[in-house]
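Please go through this protein, sequence plus structure tokens, and consider how the sequence yields the tokens. Keep your notes short.
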Amino acid sequence: MAIQISREFFAGIHPGLIKKLGTAVKSYDAWRIRRFDDAKRYALASCYLVETQQSVVDNLGDMHAQFLTDMERKTKNIYEHAHRKLRKRLRLGIPTLEAFAITALALEKHEHIDMLYRENDRERVESAVEDSKAFRRLEGRGYVEILHGKYPNFKRYFPLFLELEFQAVKGARYLIEAIEIARKFNSGVLKKLPTDIPTRFIPKRWKKMLHTQDGCINPRTWELALALAMREALKSGDLFLPAGRHYVSFWNLVYDDQKWAAEKTKVCADQGFSLDPGHILKHLADEFGRTATTAVSGVGRNSFIKVKNGKVRFSKDKADGKQGEVKKLRQLIEASLPKIRIEHLLMEVEALCGFSTELRPVEGSSGDITEKLPVLLAAIVAHGTNLGVLTMADSTAKITVDMLRNISNACLRQETLKAANTVLVNYQKNLEVSSVWGHGHASSSDGQRFGVSQSSLIASVYPRYFGYYDRVVTVYTHVSDLLSVFNTQVISCGQREALYVLNGLLENDSELSPCWHHTDTGGYTDHLFALCFLLGFSFMPRIKSLHKRRLYKINPNLHYGPLEPLFRGTVNIELIREQWESLIRVAASLKNRIVTADVIVKRLVNSSPADRLSRALTELGRLVKTVYILSYIQDEEMRRQVQKQLNRGEHRQGVARHVFFADQGEFRSGDLAEIMNKASCLSLLSNAILVWNTVHISEIVTRLRERSHTIPDKHLAGVSPMLHKHVIVNGTYDFTGGRQKPTRIR
């Protein structure tokens, strides 16, 4: 994997710039690269090679983890199926063995053994005994034996995977030793595995299968256990790949020691961080005390809290009494919105805000983009509705497949689509009527699952809704209180959504300034509470089964009356104080986009218990989470705001299901870049619908008020501007109209 480019060549260059240049080169044809002078051409080539190497190494790490996860899942399914069959047979055999034993116990010593079979059938007894033996073997050795059956397929890639350049932290050097032995064994240098090799990573229940009958190490058991240990160590950072981007040493992800020492004073001053934890910890302690005291004293008056027999339970809030008026207004507005085709809507929105100017072609492309606007808009609709360029070419006049492909490759890239979406988000925010829904200070994030018909590294099974065999990805979106989508990510549905919450908040380039962020239960962890606090966000999730959540005290000797059953631990303030500068170092790295947030959060969540930084972050998160939950259970308005914002995210998902209709909403390609482009085009279309709706809702409300209809802003705030039944997304498309004047309400 070595590309022989010295890392010193890139010293002092922001990783984001290397990634940007490397990604840009992928869009260039050979003739475009040749026209640059030598220095620029070689610099671009170097960025491309380093970026490609990092991507390949990261993908290899991801593929290793995914292969083992799939292998474990299939093994577990086979094991559980066999276990069920044997249990069923055992239930039938137990009465036979029981009758046989009763007869045997009743015999006198001098009576002949044949008398046993006068009352019991010999074949049934033998069958029951064999089933019992098989069941014991299955429970003791069956899982590993099934894994052994998958060993040949595993060996097709694992020896090559071992050839990557691995390094380990001090406490995990035994893995490097084991990797070296595995390399020699796979290359034939070792004919068999020595008996004194590292085995501390062997799971306890596998020990019986570690040695063969002649006392040698069983290669299948040892190598499979090593592979699983490497997967977990790569996740936690105990093992890392220096040539990669995500699997490098933790302190290479953030500000390194030298740069942090030189810049920490300036960075902290610029970002508002304090290197002294005393003031902040005192502020948190004071807030904890006030919130806890208020929550305890208000238990008797708080209908949300029920305390019975020493157990705390929580009820549901009553529905808002204004729902009837809001429903009538929504129906009136829906009836007033004219039917419009998706392509005409997009052309009208383009005429309003000119988002297409951000969809610039790669450097060196010829021609004016305004001349190709119909083709560009057709490409957006093709991807955003999941039709694809072939079907779109068949569904519209004078636009060919080649035209759609060329403009997609030239203009529809992640950076351009994000910039175009930002134009739409900013335009809608600055419309006067938008202020009834919010001011861009609150946001939420949630995932929406889509099937994938082709093999994909990022896709995984999602049995809850898609069964055990269909592959699925999650499109994770950040939605503002104005209902605009300001960030889109495609992630694996096999991972917790909480890992990706900070990405959208920190990578926001729009005029929105979210201070409060909401998720559902799957979108929170203690680490996330802590990082949001350090980064200046108020993290306010909706947490399921509140009575099961642990709250943490600062002083273990204090008693919190009827809420005492909720407190099941104590925060280690001294550990937070000890690791404070490291916590600030991580937060500053995230704030300045030195590293993407999901990489840091994954590493910290998977860190070993001995990692004091991860533990300190957990302790800080527990403290912040406790203060939030105590506020949440006593503040009905806060609970309503959390639910309202999450409902806005659900409204946006309804638009996505309506627009992304082709192939039953299933991605046909497994390529991550193509999936991501479609997801971004889908966000662009939903934002365009939002802009169009906002403009027309404003006109409708103005005319209704002119006709003496009383429409309070608080009622209008309950009407989602993500209405979509009037938008026609299928049929034959017409992009020949050029820039359109907005449709007017009659």
Q: What stands out?
A: The chain has 28 helices and 14 strands.
